[in-house]
Amino acid sequence: MNSFVSSIASSIINYFAGFGQALAFFGNVLSLIVRGRIRVKEVFKQIYEQGLQSVLIVALTGMASGVVLAMQGYVMMVRFGAKEYIAQLVILSLFREMGPVFTSLVFSGKAGARMAAELGTMSVNDQITATRTMGVDPLEYLVVPRMLACFIVIPMLTVFAELVGVMGGYLIGVYEANIPGPFYISQTFKGVEFVDFFSGFLKTIGFSILVGWICCFQGFYTRGGSVGVGQYTTRAVALSYIAVIISNTFLTKIILTFWG
Q: Can you give the residue ranges of every domain in the chain?
């Protein structure tokens, strides 16, 4: 019994210690950014690599989301003689929820995993220690560019996925539901307001911070050789998924409370 209680207490202590380390890590990175310790060339390099790596799968995800929303919307709306509202259903669902969440999840599984694996490999091979030995801050050189790139790339990919999703909904609405193209477009613009786009975009910013923070932290503190790289990379992706899904719940509540 005592060993069981001790095990639980040890797990709780380790959890809070790890969370405190993660907060300190984020605080140090934020401090470097605020002080202008930003390597612009490395940031653009990471933007290119992260965006290029994710753009195709994000486009496919956005297109599939728009198509499925339109098909399901058509089945439901036609029962009530309201199929003209398919356009509004598609764009509101994409802008408010599906676009930000799906894009962040896809990015975590692709570019986020790559970031964690890269930093993890550097950590287990003592490259991070070597960087520090040469007088270069590894946070400034390795972490800040990756986190800033996340903050820029994920919102851009989200907007791209939403536009592609709207195109997918248009194809179903026009060619399967037989809604006139000009009418579908007018209903699309009529159905969305600035608050709808802003609420989704606000979520995306929050998700980008969480994904970049988690993946970089897990990679930076990877231990255990090549096996550890796999374990910490998997953990980074899993924690990113959990953080995006849970934070989406709280952000949705906050946004609906203040903006409706």
A: 25-258
